[in-house]
Every structure is written in structure tokens, then in C-alpha cells.
Amino acid sequence: MCSSKKVVLHINRELSWLNFNERVLLEADDSTVPLLERLTFLGIFSNNLDEFYRVRVAMLKRIVNFSEAMNGLNLDYDPVKILKEIHKRTVAQRRKADEIYNNICLDLTKDNIHIIDETKLSEEQGIFVRQYFKDTVRQFLFPIMLDRFRNFSNLHDNSTYMVIDLTHKANPATENLALIEIPTDHLPRFVVLPQGTDKRYYVMYIDDVIRFCLDEIFLVLGFVKYRAYAIKFTRDAELDIDSDVSKSFLEAVSDSLKQRSRGDTVRFIYDPKLPCNILSSLLKKFGIKKRDSLEKGGRYNNLRDLMKFPQNLGTKKMRYESLQPLEISEFSTGKSMLDVIREKDMLLHYPYQPFQYIIDLLREASIDPAVRAIKMTIYRAAKNSAVVNALINAARNGKEVIVFVEFQARFDEAANIGWAARMQEEGIRVLPSIPGMKVHCKMLLIRRKENGINVYYTAIGTGNPNEITTRIYCDEHLLTADKTITADINKVFHLLDDRKYQMPKFKQIIVSPFNTRKFFIDRINGEIKNARRGKPAWMILKMNNLVDKKIVKRLYEASVAGVKIDLIVRGICTLVPEIPQHSENIRAIRIVDRFLEHSRVFVFCNGNEPVYYIGSADCMERNLDYRFEVITPVRDSDLQKELWELLQRQLTDNIKARTISATRPNEKVHVPKGKTKVNSQAEFYQYLKNKLNTPNPK
Asked: Which of 41, 221, 528, 568 has fewest C-beta within 10 Å?
């Protein structure tokens, strides 16, 4: 076996994440992607980078500060060195993003869509913009004069601000600076101007609407010249939850949310045209040091708003062709969904099939007189959640409804606290969050009285039961009345309810933090054992992140033993496939396409009797050891075939798949001459469509 001391077993997780985000950027740069969709990918890239700084970079900076306070820490990595590399790579990626953005803008002009600033307005457009400013924008603008400004912590995290350099007619030599927040919480970032006789579309950033109308704000105060420069703060978003025992956990999370907006600055982006003297004044005013990741930006920040670029412009070719979710024949006969599930396990594939079936299942359960109880976990709910409304309706219909709402779901804490309050008002029993232990599993359990006994139905998913994200995330949902699986899920709910946290004996499902790590190790060891005996040995692991050092090390050992390993990892993958001793048996790819690959699917050869699993857990220490996660077997042979067809299409994808590698990250998969091109998402949709249109043999 290859010693871990002789090879680098993994690459840094932060740098691996940057490789993933670079793959998103490559999608924005792909000329085969529809033009307006390329803008969306730029927005996703920008949003990803913001969250990366708010979470991972913030944590590294905390480690650096703590290490300095403690005169050093015994770490197996250098956080300062990693921060420098992150800064170097993100600056390069942002420059590439700017280049891609400019190229897209040029291509848009060929399709008669022009993104213009305030210097390019015609007289008629100028009149419209001023009226729009007066009627719509001005009411949301509240300038801050920086000479009187004292509390930097009141500035909003991740918002875009403009620093206005003002010249007063009476004292033109005196520096006067004002700060204006771009009101994108209230207004669209983009303004579509009226079409003229040339039939062209003209679009402006709201930033430039404000620039054009600065005199409407400042002229009355005697200022006669105005120069605006974009700046942006990114703050540490980690919650520091108070351990005060006199507070409830809900109160502690709520108080921590208030502190998040005042977190330390981890990045400060500024317009490169900002004069040096003004930059110095701002840094002094805001108490920002160079180590806080000063970064030159551009004229516009928060390019995540490109995800909301007006979609009603241009031609159909500029957007993805509409994908109609496919019906499931068994659910389209007018038969009770519970009856269908009792007869046969069902598997939903989002977004290829509609999430509406889960809503329909909840609706049926809410009005079925034989249904006694509904239990569910909620990690992220849609803004106007049909799921929550269905649960409320069930409670109104006299059902016992018990819901676990995770208050610690990052960036959804406030929304979940609001949903919990709403459900409690409607008579739903809300199980409180568990300090320090997130409940990340996706479970629904329905208890029905049939012939005098309790019969259970369950839905176990790889992603959130969210009618918005299931339109754009690729996930799976198993619906089953299997007695052992439903009994296991019921045990998990009892565990969350009684809070004894003693591991029950599960017959079928795998549950973190109890036995998920052991499950993976045992399954890998089983393949190693078979390989050494000369038996077939392989595994296919599809997940979002592969980070856990012990799992990575065991996968290397499996490859040395001769186990064939296929990895489909969308995000962070710290395993290095090309280490010479392992490369012949490990292949790792990531797929970034129209939909976000989010499902976790695990298949093991098991001595030529393959076993299939889906669930909510990635191979990360937090998912294995510090969260409640559920992985379930998929035992129905028809459903196993569906998962196999999904995985095989992804493993043969040669259009959107890229290699995962330390030395060649995001390299295109080689397509031999004459080989058919495969886009896995399009191919799997077609597979499900063909299956729907093929009559079942009698």
C-alpha cells in the first residue's frame, strides 16, 4: 500500500472549491450556451464567490487571528499561504469574468440588446430615465455624508454602494464624500428603456440611473460636481451563537443573525478609477487593513444580479429551450398516490419530473380521513412555500403535524424562524433545532390507519423539498411504503423529538452521525476484499463534495487493491486522481450544465450483486459526524435501472463533463474521433421521456 507520507493525499479544499467555481465560469465562456444563459452563469459565479468569502475565507482569517493570539497553532496547513493563493486566484478569475462579460455584451449588441451607461443616453432616453428616477428610485435613496459617519457596522454586508466625490460651489477644494446604497432589495438591478424606432433594446444598470440623476439629490445642497465610484464590503457570515443558558436556542440564533451584519470585513472591493486619496480616506474611515483582502473591482459590483437579467428580451435562441417536466404514468391514472406507493416504490427525478407530486401527496394526506399524522424535516423552504401551506392545511384538517425546522441553515435562518412561527400559529408542533447539530436529512413520513393498524409511507430525498430549487437542481426522491425503511424513518423522528440521542437499531437506512462513516468504510472495504480475491470490484460515487480525509485515504487504498472507482463530484474534491499509483483505477469528473447536479447516489459492485443508495450526505466530516443525515437503499430493480442509466450517461458525458485534477483541473473530456457526443442531462431527460411513452408489457 502506498504510504501517505510519500504522496500528497489531497489538495486543499478551498483551492478545490475555486476549481469548481472556475468550471462555472467556463460555462459562461462557452459559446454553445445561449447568450442570456451565459449571463446567468456569470451571476452564479459571482454569487458563489461572495459566499466563499463570507464562509471559507472568513474562517481562515479567524484561524489566522486566533493563531496570532495563541502564538501559533499546530496545523497541517498554512492558512496565511492559502489566503494569499486564494487572493491570487480569485483576482485572476474576476479578471476573466470581466473579459467574458465584455464579450457577452458585444455579442448581445449583434442581437440588438445594448447595455448602456448614463453617458450614452439619447435625449428621449434621458427624459425617461429622469422620470423613472423621480417616480421609482429616489424614494429608496438615503445618502450618508461620510464626514459625519461614525458606525461602519451599520453598512450592509454584500450590498453595492457608491462613494460620491462631491465638489461644493463655495469650497471646491474641500473633500466631500457621500455614500449611497444601491437599492436592489427594493428595485430590479436592470432598467429596460422604451424601444425606439430602431427596434433595439436598451438596458441600464440602476447604478447608472442614479449616476445620471445625482444632481436631483445634491444640487440643492450646493454641490455642483459629482463623481461616483462603486465599492462593496463582504463580511464574515459565520454565526457566533451565544451560550447564555437563560436564552432559548431560537433567541440565540436570532441575536446572532443581528451580529452577522456587523461581522468583520473579509473583502473590500473598489472601483479601480477611485482616486488614491479617496481610497485612503475610506480605508481609514472604515478601519479596513490590507489583510482584509483589498481588491480592485469594476464599475459594477454584485454581478450575481445578472441571474435576474431581463429574460423577455431578444429571441428564443438566447435562452434554453423550455423543458416540460415529464409525468409519471402511475401517478396520472387518477389513482390514490398512497395506493400507488403501497404497491410499488417510486423514484422522482428533479427537474425532469415535477415536484408537484410531493405537494399532491401532502394534499391527499391532509384530506384522507384515514391519515392520522404527517411528519417532515425542513432545511430550506421556498419563499412562498406550497409545502408549508400543505402542512398547514393538514393541521387545519385535524391531522397531527410535526415538523423539524432547521434554524441553522446558513443564510436561511431568518426565513426558517419565520416559517416556524407561522406553523406554530396554525397548530403544527415544531421541533426545535439542536444546538451545534444541524438536521440536514430530507424526510417526510405519513401515518395512516389501515384495517386497524398503522401503515407508514415515506419520502426520502437528496435535496430540499422546495418547489423553486427542484426546477433547477438535479435531485432524487424515493417514495416507499417499505415496512423496514418507514420504521427506520419513524425512529429518526422519535430521536429528534425525545432528544435522547441514543442510536436506535436501524435495519435499512444509514444515519449520521451514528453509522454513515462506518457504512462508507465497510462498503469500500468490501470492494477491497473482493478485488484481492480476484472478484469484480467497483463503485460509482456521485456527490456534491468529497473532502473527508479518512474516506479519501481509503479510496486510494481501494484503487491500489484494484477496485475501479468512478467519481462524479460537482463541488469540492480533495482526492487527486492522477497520483501514478492510483490513476489507472480512479476517474473523477464534474458536470456543470443547465441544471445544478445536487443528488447523492452511491452504487457498489457487492460481488456482482450491485447495491444502490441515495441520500442527503456528502463525504465531508460535518455530514458524516456532526449532522443528522439519512441515506436509504433503493431496492426496486426498476428504480435501480433508472439510477444506473442516470450514472452511465453522466460517466459518458463528453460535452459538459470536465476532469477533476490537481494539475489539469476542468480539462475537457477527450472525445475520440467518430464517438457520439453525449450531454448527460439532455440524454437522461430523453431516456425518461422514452420510458414514459413506452407501454408497460402486460
From this structure: 221
Pick from 506, 522, 538: which residue ends a domain? 506
What's 20's domain CATH number?
3.30.1840.10
Residues 98 and 244 in one domain: yes
For residues 87 and 283, give the distance between their C-alpha atoms in angstroms, rounded to a whole number.
Answer: 19
* 183 in Cβ contact with 137 (< 8 Å): yes
Distance of alpha carbon 565 from alpha carbon 59, whole angstroms: 32
CA-closest candidate to residue 462, choices 356, 603, 617? 617
478: which DSSP letter?
Answer: E
Is 688 contained in some domain?
yes
Of 446, 477, 506, which closes a domain?
A: 506
Domain count, the chain: 3
Q: State the Cα–Cα distance between residues 286 and 293, nearest whole angstrom.
A: 14
> Cβ neighbours of residue 464 under 8 Å, at least 6 residues apart?
378, 379, 380, 381, 442, 470
The residues near 44 (Cβ < 8 Å, ≥ 6 apart) are 24, 304, 307
440 is catalytic: yes
- Please pick, among 10, 156, 186, 440, the residue that the annotation labels catalytic: 440
**What does the pLDDT look like over 493-520, one tens digit per residue?**
999 998 776 788 999 999 999 999 999 9
Tell if the pTM clears 0.85, that is, is over it: yes
Residue 549, C-alpha cell as written in the block: 480525509
Summarised one tens digit per residue, pLDDT across range 377-434 is 999 998 899 999 999 999 999 999 999 999 877 777 888 888 889 999 999 999 988 8
247 and 363 together in one domain:
no
